[in-house]
Amino acid sequence: MDGFVFYTNYESTKGKAIAKNPKVSVSFFWEGAERQVIIRGIAEKVSDAESDAYFNTRPRGSQLGAMASNQSQVIVSRESLKSKVDALEKQYEGKTLTRQSIGVVIL
After folding, report:
1. Measured between alpha carbons, how far is 87 from 72 in angstroms, rounded to an integer?
2. Number of domains the chain is built from
3. 40: Cβ–Cβ under 8 A, 6 or more apart, which residues?
4. CATH code of the domain in which 58 resides
């Protein structure tokens, strides 16, 4: 895959904004060059297979957290989120987790 790849949840504020307007930019500090780098381009989704491959590299706890979290939504409490993760952990005990709306965007 050519370009810069980053990961987002399609249902997050960022994911929805990209769906409406795929013109995006990425900014980061490049310490070795002592410069800030800005990259602009058009974001597009990569294949489901590539998104699945990324999801499968994440630790199980991270996968469960992604499944439990309603991205960009206020949570009632840390305990409520933990309860959702615990419930999913029991529900999927011994089972392989699959990617839901988490995806990959390439720039």
Report:
1. 21
2. 1
3. 23, 24, 25
4. 2.30.110.10
pTM beyond 0.90, yes or no = no
* Residues of the domain holding 55: 5-106
Per-residue pLDDT reduced to its tens digit, 72-94: 788 889 998 899 899 989 998 99
Give 15-70 pLDDT, tens digit per residue: 899 999 999 999 999 999 999 999 999 998 888 888 889 889 999 999 998 888 87
Contacts of 51 (CB under 8 A, 6+ apart): 45, 99, 102, 103, 104
Rounded Cα–Cα distance for residues 76 and 59 (Å): 25
